[in-house]
UniProtKB/TrEMBL annotation:
InterPro entries in the record: Bact_solute-bd_prot1, SBP
Alphabetized PANTHER family for the sequence: ARABINOSE-BINDING PROTEIN-RELATED
One Pfam family in the UniProt entry: SBP_bac_1
Organism encoding this protein: Paenibacillus prosopidis
Protein name as it appears in the record: Carbohydrate ABC transporter substrate-binding protein (CUT1 family)
Signal peptide: 1-19
Keyword Hydrolase: no
Organism lineage string: Bacteria, Bacillati, Bacillota, Bacilli, Bacillales
Length: 430
């Protein structure tokens, strides 16, 4: 698709960043001879990153890279940064890749998308790049293929469950519940104190789907260990995960109104303003929350899904990662940027501004309080690795739970749709 068709509900933010002026544009990636004293080469680098709420931070970092590339290699780089919303990004990217219109650099989910994108031949092998040696041992496997190739630089590593307002909890003498029954008691205490228990924000389908990896991860690690393997063989069913509706229904019955009209940014503002004590969301929204209320003291806790406290666990994951298209004609510059993401000095401020966790040996900034909260659970063995659920299935559960919340379909309808989506995934990825 050479152009994004008008009418797509997607926010596209194009950023053109220029450093200096130079000779003719050259998109072949051939930058040999671009010595500091010679004629500058010109390269247009296309990036695709579905995090529009963080645009200002990416703009600044890209501008610094452009200046560095000009100073170090005498290359004039123009960066076209496209930042669709998360709900639309996956489909847009797949269409672009399939139609030979791939961005030079694009973001993908490390756990959910690397396996299928690598199998399809879309990802450049980055194993020999300098950044690889900087990755923490705990992070490197998330961007490594089954045959041992590193194919992306990670940005976000996550320790998550749900967010809660520490001041509200402390004022009412509450602690994060470890079972569904305890969660019900917390909810009643909040309501009796005229505090809405949950902020609801389901306008974007990816938000309600968060309950699926939390419920699946908890059940897989306590009573259904082979669920993913059996689903990949068309031998399992999401009816085995039906108990996820217990916590989802509880949240929905005790949350803010008009959830399908509230997106992530509005949900962050509502949570920051204390309009709900808890939010089914991860710490990746920390930067947005604190922009609304820099003084907010919030924490991360595992979400109870049943009355087995052993199933109340933190989800460990690596999500947003940057890959280089195998078909890129600007690989030299693309690889320069990929390595700049973990620059020995510049990346510290970049990752800290984004409120991302340290992921490399060159990161020396202190972890954030909410990260420390989650880390305590991890240290005590109360965590699991994010289950490898296909992205197409997660997309389906998001839409299904939106419709379920609106009363348009039943629990069984949602589960049948998920079974169908996974079987369709299996057919394409055999």
């Amino acid at each position: 698709m050479k152009k994004i068709v008008k009418g797509l509900l997607v926010t596209v933010l194009a950023t053109t960043l220029l450093a200096g002026c130079g000779g003719k544009e050259n998109n072949t990636g051939n930058t040999e001879g671009a010595a500091a004293g010679g004629e500058a080469k010109s390269v247009t680098l296309k990036m695709f990153i579905a995090q529009p709420r963080l645009k200002e931070h990416y703009d600044k970092y890209i501008a610094d890279f452009v200046a560095k590339e000009k100073a170090d290699k005498n290359i004039d780089v123009t960066v076209q940064l496209e930042m669709p919303t998360a709900d639309n990004a996956a489909q847009i990217l797949k269409t672009r890749l399939a139609s030979n219109d791939a961005p030079d650099i694009f973001a993908l989910h490390a756990i959910n998308e690397i396996p299928s994108y690598y199998k399809a031949g879309y990802l450049e092998d980055l194993s020999g790049q300098p950044f690889v040696g900087k990755l923490l041992d705990s992070v490197k496997p998330s961007v490594t293929t089954t045959d041992g190739k590193v194919v992306a630089v990670p940005l976000e590593t996550l320790s998550w469950g749900y967010l809660y307002n520490k001041k509200i909890f402390a004022d009412l003498g509450l602690t994060p519940p470890t079972t569904l029954t305890e969660m019900k008691a917390v909810i009643e205490k909040l309501k009796s104190s005229n505090v809405t228990p949950f902020v609801l924000s389901y306008k974007e389908a990816w938000i309600p789907q968060l309950v699926l990896p939390l419920a699946a991860g908890a059940l897989i690690n306590t009573e259904n260990a082979d669920f993913i393997d059996r689903m990949n063989k068309d031998e399992g069913s999401f009816t085995e995960m039906k108990s996820m509706f217990d916590i989802f229904d509880l949240i929905n019955a005790n949350g803010t109104e008009k959830a399908t009209e509230v997106g992530g940014d509005d949900g962050a503002a509502a949570f920051a303003a204390g309009k709900g004590a808890m939010w089914l969301q991860g710490p990746w929204y920390a930067e947005t929350i604190l922009k609304s209320n820099p003084e907010l003291d919030f924490g991360v806790a595992p979400l109870p899904i049943n009355d087995n406290p052993e199933a109340t666990l933190i989800n460990l994951s690596a999500s947003t990662s940057l890959a280089v298209s195998k078909s890129s004609k600007n690989k030299e510059v693309a690889l320069d940027f990929i390595n700049y993401v973990l620059d020995d000095t510049a990346s510290n401020d970049f990752f800290q501004a984004l409120k991302f966790n340290p992921i490399a040996t060159v990161h020396t900034y202190e972890s954030y309080p909410w990260v420390n909260d989650a880390t305590e659970y991890v240290k005590n063995g109360k965590s699991y690795q994010d289950p490898a659920i296909p992205q197409s299935v997660k997309d389906e559960v998001g839409k299904g739970l939106q419709a379920y919340y609106a009363g348009q379909i039943s629990q069984d309808d949602v589960l049948k749709a998920l079974d169908k989506a996974w079987k369709s995934f299996n057919k394409v990825n055999k």
